[in-house]
Amino acid sequence: MNMLTVGQKAPEFALQDQNGNTVELTQLLKSGAVLLYFYPKAMTPGCTVQACNLRDSQAEFAKKGVQVVGISTDPVKSLAKFVQRDALNFTLLSDPEHQTAAAFGVWGEKKFMGKVYDGIHRTSFLIGQDGMIQQVYQDFKTSNHHEVVLKSLP
Q1: Phi-psi region for residue 114, left (φ > 0), alpha (ψ -120 to 50) or beta?
Q2: Are the beta carbons of 116 and 107 closer than 8 angstroms?
Q3: Which domains does the chain have, with CATH numbers?
Q4: CA–CA separation, 125 vs 84, rounded Å?
Q5: Which of 11, 30, 57, 70 is 20 to 30 Å from 133 by CA-CA measure?
Q6: Which of the residues 36, 47, 101, 133 is marked catalytic?
């Protein structure tokens, strides 16, 4: 795993959102900075806590000019269910072949309960409107992710 770092250009991507629409990074950046957060699996306990806290903090992110976008390897149908079930108010993107996760360096070996497998490492990237990575967030809990990010924003 070779994770991107601050000062590097974010790789371009084109992924389907929860509604089946294709979304590109360049399109997202037209509105300002993007908090791109990678999470392992929709509708699991930790991912739900993280997503709901981001949902509840949307006004604060908007004041800071930051758009929240989540990426997982879940299929579009699962993302749609997640958005509906938890009334999420931001875009979720499907990366089923984990190419975008790999490009950002967050796809790799994980261990859970003695089992080794490949998956997404929970990481977030703040991408400036110029497409450059401004912050990388790894040191957080699902319950305080939104606070860690908001405290770091100017």
Answers
A1: left
A2: no
A3: 14-146 (3.40.30.10)
A4: 25
A5: 57
A6: 47
